[in-house]
Each structure stands twice: as structure tokens, then as C-alpha cells.
Design goal:
Blueprint (H helix, E strand, L loop, with lengths): L4 E3 H8 L3 H10 L4 E3 L5 E4 L2 H14 L3 H15 L18
Antiparallel strand pairs: 1-3, 2-3
Helix pairs in contact: 1-2
Length: 96
């Protein structure tokens, strides 16, 4: 199972509250907390909070599919595949 660790500020942004309120929520939910090497304390999200985090990503990154399509198209163009005929599988040559 993947782990997602957030600072109190990040956790607050996820929950729409202040960092102090996020800390209180982490304590109330008994989330695992650790001090990182950078000096920030991070909380480990539980399954329900991870689901909320993924949902916010889906909402904010709605253009991700378009970015992936554009990246694939750029790769195709840079690799020398020029297809003007969809039935053609020629690599590095123009289809006629």
C-alpha cells in the first residue's frame, strides 16, 4: 500500500483549515506523525484521507489526459515517425 506523508500545511490545504487545526485533526485521528530531516513534522494519511487526496488530484489535474496525449504526439514526432496514412507503420519515412 502506498504511503502519503504531508506537512501540517499540506494537510491543512487538503482539509481546508489552518495548520493548527490540521495538527489537532491529526492527533484526533491518531495519524502517524514523524519529524523529517528537513525539520518539518509530517503526518501519514490513512486510507480515507488518501482517497480524498486522490480525488483532489483528479479534480485539479483534469488536463492530465491531454498532456499525456501531447507528450505521446511529441515523442512520435521526435522519433521520426511521420504518418499521414493511418494504415502505414513505416518508421522514419513519410507515408505516401
Amino acid at each position: 500500500m502506498p504511503q502519503i506523508w504531508m506537512t501540517y500545511d499540506e494537510f491543512a490545504a487538503l482539509n481546508g483549515c489552518s495548520a493548527a487545526e490540521a495538527r489537532a485533526q491529526a492527533l484526533q485521528l491518531s495519524l502517524v506523525r514523524r519529524k523529517s530531516r528537513d525539520g518539518n513534522t509530517r503526518v501519514k494519511l490513512n486510507a480515507a484521507l488518501m482517497a480524498r487526496f486522490y480525488e483532489t488530484l483528479r479534480e485539479t489535474e483534469f488536463d492530465l489526459d491531454h498532456a499525456i496525449t501531447a507528450l505521446r504526439e511529441t515523442h512520435r514526432l521526435m522519433s521520426g515517425v511521420v504518418v499521414t496514412n493511418p494504415d502505414s507503420q513505416l518508421r522514419g519515412q513519410m507515408a505516401r
